[in-house]
Amino acid sequence: MRLTIALFSSTLLLTANAASASGADYIRTYGAQGVNLWRLANQGREKDSHLIQRPVLVVQDNSNIEEPNEFPDQWFTQPIDHFANSSDTFKQRYWINTRHYTPGSGGPVIVLDGGETSGEDRIPFLDTGIVEILARATGGVGIVLEHRYYGKSIPVSDFSTDNLRWLNNDQAAADSARFMAKVTFPGIDEDLTAPNTPWIYYGGSYAGARAAHMKVLYPDLVYGAIASSGVTHATLSNWEYYEIIRNAADPTCARKLEHTTLAIDALLGVPFAKRFIKSLFGLEDLAHDDDFISVLESPLGYWQAKVWDPAVGSTKFDQFCTFLDKPILGNGSVSSLPVGHKDRLVHFPGDIKLDFSILNYAQYIKENYVSQCKTSVEDCFGTYNDSSFLATGLDQEWRLWQFQVCTEWGFFSTAPPDPAHPRIVSKLLTSEYSSKICRQAYPAGKYFTVPPMPNITAVNALGDFAISADRLAIIDGEVDPWRPCTPHSDYAADREDTILQPFKLIPNAVHHYDEYGLKNISDEPVEIRKIHGEMIVFVMEWLKAFKAPGSQ
Length: 552
Description:
The protein is α/β, with parallel strands linked by helices. It has 16 helices and 15 strands. A hairpin with a 3-residue loop joins strand 11 (345-348) and strand 12.
């Protein structure tokens, strides 16, 4: 059988479908292409969450909280610079859950670090997620603490390079420490500050690394900490992110992605074929090949959007894989053939032969990404115009996590270093390409200059893969694309799982699966119910040993 399609056949004219928002929202992308997709997703401030790509954090929809007024904004005054003699301050926002608090009971404070997003996105964890679960079990107070610069905890008038100089690990850690030591909660008369009250510090992803770091940096204030998917290993090249996806995805889908990647890289190396393959994806006018392939890798970010709770999780990765196998011209018999089989090939002029899954891939990109572009594709998806990344207004929220990436965390998306290694992203995805946004977006200021490469030593010096302490729990997901940057990385030494130093890997879990919860734990999937039960047990055991300083 031979499938033949003329280059501009009407069967390749793809309908542009409007994107729809979902309950789970991708946030804090990085890389210049990520900024482009962030802009498209925020056209008119209407967020189409499926557009924003790459290694990111998925947050829970907060629209289903039964009593939205139960958690009003609270504020705590912080210095802008903890390490200088300055009187400049800002207001840090937080929220409190006192449902299970009984005065004088000695219950803990469970604080969830808001991480690199508005703290409002974390309120569901205060309502039904891990904070509520642990507060209910321990009779404690639950807190969500918004990270400096995010949400409404903004200490500056714009996000220029100079004004971002206080956005770093040390300042953020000092915020949390001061909050724990000095906060007075509304409606609560007794002193619940650390260290006289046991504080359990929880975080997921970047915030998970912060939870681990807080236990190391401020052991007298942080009685216990839980690092969920905590990326305690900062790195310049984060190629393993895609390796987890390649190995964990449905094998048939993974083979299609590998085949597509190799085929497109080969075609980009042939001048007459280059324009053809770009036109197939609706991106023929995109000048740079690395910009082209960076758009194509965008759907891979859907993997991280998987969550066990269907109310907040995304099935878009699986839908994407299904789309790749859609029968071409109604011929379903070829779908079961191995990718690259001669009967799956579509023949084009110039002796170009493509597996039909590549045509489906092209259609998917056109429908879900290119269709969102209202100007030119170079304007929407080009990344070589430095001036397009220089806006510093407070609405340019992408500048925050990107700044942290550029200064301390790295995590630049790349292809595997070994060109012979199987891959699902193009060889054109290099550190140079992924990191150029750091040079484009943050020109040197009067008081601060972004370093040539991130100072990842500032992160890794706090423990890296081996970070540990008594009453520090490490919890990760088996198929989390961020696992290679956690203590459960294949590069890290294995550990014993104990009550004092829990070390737990959730089977088939993606990103900080334990952070999500249901009002009735018994309704949760068995692996989630199991990890929540274990977390309650080890926290309760920790609390049995608590003694306030100076007590007998």
